[in-house]
Amino acid sequence: MSLHEELTAVKRSLDDLVRTVGQLEQRLGETRAAEARPLAPALVHELIPIPDTPYNHALWTDSDDEGLGVHSRRT
After folding, report:
1. How far is C-alpha 60 from the geometric centre of its chain's CA atoms?
2. pLDDT digit string (tens) for 33-69?
């Protein structure tokens, strides 16, 4: 390989490296921007009182048990 060909190959490799580093910097900037943005609006944590009154089973007589189906049918 001649000196001219070697220098051309080195220049091509450096150009590829500069382009790749630029792409990585852009992706890193996008990632940092995405991390800086909140995923959801800030949630206000408020206490919800739970009453000590007995559970009203009549409210749920016609409902299905999650994953089990209706009470009257076998699973």
Report:
1. 35
2. 877 776 666 666 788 888 888 888 887 776 666 666 5
